[in-house]
Amino acid sequence: MRRAVLAASLWAAVVMGSGNSAEALQYSLLSFEELEGWAEDDHSAALSTFLNTCGDLKAPVWAPLCKLAKSNPDARQFFEVFFRPVLIDDGDPMLFTGYFEPELDGSLVPTSRYRYPLYRLPPEAANGAFASRRAIEENGLLDGRGLEIAWVDDPVELFFLQIQGSGRINLTNGQTLRVGYGGKNGHDYRSIGQELVRRNIYSPHQVSAQVIKNWVRRNPVLGQELLWHNPSYVFFRKIRNVSASDGPRGAMNRSITTLRTIAVDPSITPLGAPVWIEKQGRRPMHRLMIAQDTGSAIKGAQRADIFYGTGDEAGTQAGTIRDPGRMVVLLPIPQAFELVPEGEG
After folding, report:
1. Could you tell me if 326 and 262 are in contact, meaning their C-beta atoms sit under 8 angstroms apart?
2. What is the predicted pLDDT for the residue at 77?
3. What is the DSSP secondary structure assignment for residue 93, as one 8-state letter?
4. Integer Cα distance of 185 and 131 in angstroms
5. What's the rounded Cα separation, in Å, for the pair 334 and 82?
6. Which of 161, 169, 121 minimizes the C-alpha distance to 145?
7. Cβ–Cβ under 8 Å, residues 100 and 310
8. What is the pLDDT of residue 337?
């Protein structure tokens, strides 16, 4: 195993947030034999997901690999011949969380039931500097400007839709509207899960998305204040031309794949790269994923958010994930040896 250390500056746990303060990244070159469960994985499924975004990778080293990937190669052999596993470490422990595509009930017009709006990005917020969540919601800052995309019936689910960044709205006319991330107000994300722990309402191991939702609904006044604790506010855009059978659009503007896509910190892990994960916990997972998404609280070298799919069941699964383990990035051989020169160790 060869190692190199490189100075670097460093998308939350959806529920709890994450930290990163490392000043250096350490790169270790591994062999495929060191990836636990590698031989047992479905490499063809990973290759199919890789192909969804491969053509969008800009670095010249990827172009010949994408061409080869489209020629129906033996999937396992393709990854083993043209990539090398690189473990990137910033000193923080690995943290896996889960995310999903929520489904909400909504309407294209406001009613007594559907009265909580999803807004598109106001022009003056395009530079990322805008009012806080409290100012937007408490003061009706965007009322009457025609920025509403739809209205939903549950402000708590709307809050978590913003955390997830995309979702489906089941409309009263029988149609389904897909929405995706359209920008934010420029305020840093603050974890309401961490705030509940700070207030000694729950211990860290008790906190999950469902626990938070239930507490806010049982305590409407304090619950509203808790939601306003997070000043970050996400705006949406309509997503068109995506089949109902496909996943939501990720950060690469392509549909993501259930249990094959992860969100990563793109300043460290290249978007589009294959990533081997070894997730521990109650439901261990060893498989090849593709880094196709980001998240405002996913920061650090050993940090990943696993996409669990669409709807309530996916949400239940995703909401329980907060597990250790490790992730190893598969980089094209030239890139791997730039980071860890041969013979260095």
Report:
1. no
2. 97
3. P
4. 6
5. 9
6. 121
7. yes
8. 94
Residue showing tokens 């855009």:
237
pLDDT of 296 reads 75
pLDDT number for residue 15: 35
Long-range pairs for 124-129 at CB < 8 Å and ≥24 separation?
Answer: 125/183, 125/184, 125/185, 125/186, 125/235, 126/183, 127/186, 128/183, 128/184, 128/185, 128/186, 129/185, 129/186
Burial of 44 (0-12, 13-18, 19+ CB in 10 A): middle
Rounded distance between C-alpha atoms, residue 121 and residue 102, angstroms: 20
Query: Looking up tokens 């943290």, which residue turns up?
Result: 95
Assigned token pair, 150: 């739809």
pLDDT at 3: 34
Q: Which two tokens stand for residue 63?
A: 């172009």
Write out residues in the chain with pLDDT < 70, as ranges.
1-23, 342-345
**pLDDT value of residue 242:** 81
Instruction: Round to whole Å and give the CA distance between 85 and 168.
Output: 36
Distance CA(205)–CA(274), nearest Å, equals: 31
Which residues have a Cβ under 8 Å from the Cβ of 33 and sit 6 or more positions away?
none
Pairing of strands 148-152, 116-119: antiparallel
pLDDT at 130: 96
Distance CA 109, CA 107 (A): 5
| Closest to 165 measured CA to CA, from 118, 129, 209, 133 | 118
CA pair distance 236, 231, nearest whole angstrom? 17
Q: Roughly what angle, to the nearest 10 degrees, separates helices 209-218 and 155-164?
A: 150
User: Letter for the amino acid at 56?
Assistant: D
Residue 285, pLDDT score: 98
Report pLDDT digits (tens) over 170-202: 999 999 999 998 999 999 999 999 999 999 999
Nearest to 298 by CA among 289, 290, 306, 308: 306
